Amino acid sequence: LQPGDLIATVEGHSVMAPFAGVLRGLVHSGVEVAANEKIGDLDPRNVRDYCFLISDKSLAMGGGVLEAILFWLSERSQI
User: Is 35 within 8 Å of 60 (Cβ atoms)?
Assistant: First the structure.
């Protein structure tokens, strides 16, 4: 997408791309959304192949959760 391209229409209001990028996701038609609620993800890196990979942010979040679980299990086993 390029800046200004139409991404979606919400109750007759056009939602335009604010910058160039690849649209990674969009809520389904018919889903209720509030004003200013995120309805999709526009990836500014503009590389379609990244849509099929786990992001660095997601990997970091998952690693943190795993670390917390392992710590909790190790503390629990010492009781």
Answer: no
Question: Positive or negative CA dihedral for 57, 61, 64, 70?
Answer: negative
What are the φ and ψ backbone dihedral angles of 76, each rounded to 5 degrees? -65, -35
Q: Are 39 and 56 in contact (CB under 8 A)?
A: no
28 vs 36: CA distance, rounded Å = 17
pLDDT in tens, 19-49: 999 998 899 988 988 888 889 999 999 899 9
What are 3's two structure tokens? 């800046």
Q: Which pLDDT does position 55 carry in this prediction?
A: 84
**Rounded to an integer, what distance in angstroms lies between the CA atom of residue 75 and that of residue 47?**
43
54 vs 71, residue with greater confidence: 71
